[in-house]
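Appendix B, record 7
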Amino acid sequence: MKETAISIRQDGKRIWRGKCASDPQLLAAVIRKRAPYARRFETGPLSVWFYYVLTAEGLPVICIDARQGRA
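Structure tokens (predicted):
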């Protein structure tokens, strides 16, 4: 995968959407810049990979099921 699509939401509203190269350092940099207080991401086909690369970059993240996140 060459690019990763990123959608950042706050209080149910999208506050930023974009793409970046699927590189752990670049992903972490985008998250630090666009969502410095974000600590969770939704499940998906690459959620295990995202978890490991983002925690390796020092981001304290957790993975949640999107349906449970709305509850």
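Remarks on this record: The helical segments are 24-34, 47-56, 66-69. The chain has one domain: 3-69.
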